[in-house]
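WARN retry 2 of 3 for item q-0093 after timeout on previous attempt; input resubmitted unchanged.
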Amino acid sequence: MDKRYTALTAAEQNQLRRALMDRLAAAPDLPIPKVIREIRKTLRFTIPEYAKICDVSPRTLQDIEREVSSPTLDTVEKLLRPMGMRAGAVQAARPGKN
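OK item q-0093 returned
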């Protein structure tokens, strides 16, 4: 965990994760780089720490967050895994169809 923060209790960690999931659910059109950064910052990880947890290079994570490069689906899956999330597609409803 980023040393700039004090350690959280398990209850506080769960509360942070629930709030994060609520924020992400409320913004389904949020771009993947912003989702990844939001997850990492909320979980209080530095780029090297989160990259190690996700088994990607720190440079790759940094480039994705800065939107310098586009991640592969496999990389997105690795980056979402710490939150128990998976990449998916949402099909938009067509007008006049239910």
